[in-house]
Amino acid sequence: MKICFASHNANKVKEMNEIMPVGISIVGLDDLNITEDIAETGSTLEENSEIKASYVFDRLGIPVFADDSGLLVKSLNGEPGVYSARYAGPEKNDDNNMNLLLENLRHHEDRSAEFQTVITYIDQKGSKRQFKGVVEGQIIKEKRGNNGFGYDPIFQPLNHEVTFAEMSHQLKNQISHRANAVQQLLDYLS
Length: 190
Fold this sequence. Notes:
Elements: E1 2-5, H1 10-19, E2 25-27, H2 45-60, E3 64-73, E4 80-81, H3 94-104, E5 112-122, E6 128-139, E7 155-157, H4 169-175, H5 177-189
Parallel strand pairs: 1-2, 1-3
Antiparallel strand pairs: 3-4, 3-5, 5-6, 6-7
């Protein structure tokens, strides 16, 4: 079974293919010659996820899922949230985003945070379903690790001594917010 993942992010497409069981193949937007960025104009992760999935389904009429993920920091009232990818500006620079977050947290004792992923799946008939994955943790004070992307070097999941960026891909793909949401999608597909 082949499903489109509405993303240009090669890291995310690779991660999704690593999570998927045998028999399900993921193709990204670049694989389908969709080169334009899909505007994320929603005010929630749920809205942005649905916007991206609907865009691809309306254009190609194929099974598709899209995700929108955000890092929500408790002491910053849920920031960066829906703006996680562009927290420090529209260029979506991971280092700038992390540096701004660390600066904004400098005077806060509570560093608890959670990653959320919302997946919208649209089947070949146009029926929509949403799935939400969450992983709780904390923002550490300096970057650690070279794996992963986004905020992975400063996010340490609950009950772990290492950041997402210090974990193996296999472990991260078992416990992450995205893995949790994808597992719900897989349970639905089966």
